[in-house]
């Protein structure tokens, strides 16, 4: 009979979460490399190159692929013959592993979990608790699947109950364009079919733990209806032309995973959950011999891809930028930012809104007039870093604050990821402002452009505090110009037509 020791399980959780913070799964690297090689869209190819270079840098530096180091999800199969040498419950052991992993001094991970979610939303500071799903199964081992799921992709989860005669394919194709680019494509789609509402969501989530193998399936052909659906959706979703980072291109998804379960005769529950470019998951088995041994990928697993700013990129001084300069920019233009910009996310915007609504001044040192804001919540620095990985968060969440910021604070530019909604684009047009997009999934690469960082105010918000960053040649793309025109609309529309002709 196998005995699993408390310290072995905790250490395995720590090691696994650290591992997936800086190592992409090799199958993802290989699939993204193939997509990069065949990509015909210049903007999408550039975005994928940044993701691949960032991936290699993170593996070498043992720093997070993305600043959003995710909420931990664990699927645990416990053999019924297993004995435990522990003073803690299984849930307590997993959460202790999460706590230690996210506070590891050599590679601090961002704590994103908040308690009292419908109230004060207080950060737990150690990313606990994890979301844990446990099964009792035959055997004498413990099998664990771990994922660190980022908020940008998790927020794009969708669920519906179709009529039994309804078309799952049509529903997915209707839903995908509504997801925008906040889930940081190219990634994977996990689809759960059947069971009940909660079962379909679990099926979709766990399917994302499977390896990318769509090309092998294409080569051998489908053996059942589920595999037929995978191939059909893979082709048709990519034909939408959404592309890497929503910029338009040949590849939106690298694989489509489908899991199903028997369901009620009157129902067809369907769940869809996307996985982002910072795909993070791992599986290991404990057999009583000690902590899990995790084999790191080798240097040969990354392609010989380099990235440098294109010759046509405009260098911009943020400390002297004017609206007249901004007015000449067009969607898709490459920009290299240098100078100082402020940061702020949801919580900071909400506080600013509260102050302005009461007629109170902004805190000392907070002056947005003629300046840019970067939507980011960076990882804490380690060693001699100025700032930890500092990629963009989804700008769409700040849409409801955009008119306030542009109209009441004098802000003229914003930097984030994903598209902006109609109201935000109209406000940008009205105020002659601009929205720039940084690549989601290239957080360590972006952080290398940061020369200094200091907290200005709202320090109690942790990673959501307002900071002032000084950057040098930070790479961004004009996503919405001063006329309100969006590359996230024009790019996919153009590539959908191009792919249709192909």
Mean pLDDT: 96
Q: Gap between N and C termini, in Å? A: 60 Å
- The fraction of residues in strands falls at 15-25%
Instruction: Kindly name the structural category.
Output: alpha/beta
What's the CATH class label of the largest domain? Alpha Beta
Write down the CATH topology of the largest domain: fumarase
Low-confidence blocks of residues: none
Instruction: Give the strand order, joined by hyphens, for the main sheet.
Output: 14-15-16-17-19
- Specify the CATH homologous superfamily of the largest domain: Fe-S hydro-lyase, tartrate dehydratase beta-type, catalytic domain
Rg value:
23 Å
Shape assignment: globular
Fraction of residues in helix: 25-40%
Largest sheet: 5 strands, mixed, barrel
Return the CATH architecture of the largest domain. Answer: Alpha-Beta Barrel
- Tell me the number of strands: 19
Provide a brief overview of the structure.
With 502 residues, this protein is α/β, with parallel strands linked by helices.
Protein traits:
fumarase, 15 helices, four-stranded mixed sheet, globular, 32% helix, alpha/beta, five-stranded mixed barrel, 60s Ribosomal Protein L30, Chain: A
């Amino acid at each position: 009979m196998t005995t699993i020791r408390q310290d072995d399980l905790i250490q395995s959780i720590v090691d696994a979460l650290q591992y997936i913070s800086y190592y992409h799964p090799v199958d993802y690297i290989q699939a993204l490399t193939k997509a990069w090689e065949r990509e015909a869209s210049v903007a999408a190819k550039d975005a994928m190159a940044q993701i691949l270079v960032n991936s290699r840098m993170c593996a070498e530096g043992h720093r997070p692929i993305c600043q959003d180091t995710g909420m931990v999800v664990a699927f645990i199969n416990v053999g019924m013959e297993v004995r435990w040498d522990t003073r803690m419950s299984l849930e307590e052991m997993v959460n202790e592993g999460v706590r230690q992993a996210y506070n590891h001094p050599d590679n601090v991970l961002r704590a994103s979990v908040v308690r009292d979610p419908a109230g004060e939303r207080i950060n737990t500071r150690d990313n606990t608790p994890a979301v844990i799903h446990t099964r009792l199964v035959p055997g004498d081992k413990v099998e664990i699947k771990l994922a660190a799921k980022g908020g940008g992709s998790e927020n794009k989860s969708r669920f519906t109950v179709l009529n039994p005669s309804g078309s799952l394919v049509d529903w997915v194709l209707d839903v995908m364009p509504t997801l925008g680019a906040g889930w940081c494509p190219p990634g994977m789609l996990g689809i759960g079919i059947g069971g009940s509402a909660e079962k379909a969501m679990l099926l979709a989530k766990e399917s994302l733990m499977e390896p990318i193998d769509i090309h092998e399936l294409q080569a051998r052909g489908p053996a059942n209806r589920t595999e037929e659906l995978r191939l059909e959706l893979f082709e048709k979703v990519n034909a939408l032309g959404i592309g890497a980072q929503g910029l338009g291109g040949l590849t939106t998804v690298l694989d489509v995973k489908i899991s199903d379960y028997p369901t009620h005769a009157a129902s067809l529950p369907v769940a869809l959950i996307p996985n982002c470019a910072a795909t993070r998951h791992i599986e290991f088995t404990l057999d009583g011999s000690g902590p899990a041994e995790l084999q790191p990928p080798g240097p040969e697993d990354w392609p010989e891809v380099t990235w440098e700013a294109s010759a046509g990129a405009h260098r911009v001084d943020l400390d002297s930028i004017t609206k007249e300069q901004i007015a000449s920019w067009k969607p898709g233009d490459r920009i290299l930012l240098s100078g100082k910009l402020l940061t702020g996310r949801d919580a900071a915007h909400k506080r600013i809104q509260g102050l302005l609504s009461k007629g109170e001044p902004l805190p000392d040192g907070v002056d947005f007039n003629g300046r840019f804001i970067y939507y980011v919540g960076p990882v804490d620095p380690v060693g001699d870093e100025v700032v930890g990985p500092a990629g963009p968060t989804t700008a769409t969440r700040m849409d409801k604050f955009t008119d306030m910021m542009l109209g009441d604070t004098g802000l003229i530019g914003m930097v984030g990821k994903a598209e902006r909604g109609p109201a935000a684009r109209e406000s940008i047009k009205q105020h002659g402002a601009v929205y720039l997009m940084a690549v989601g999934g290239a957080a360590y690469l972006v952080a290398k452009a940061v020369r200094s960082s200091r907290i200005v105010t709202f320090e109690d918000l942790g990673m959501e505090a307002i900071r002032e960053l000084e950057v040098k040649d930070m790479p961004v793309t004009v996503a919405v110009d001063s006329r309100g025109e969006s590359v996230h609309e024009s790019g996919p529309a153009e590539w959908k037509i191009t792919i249709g002709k192909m």
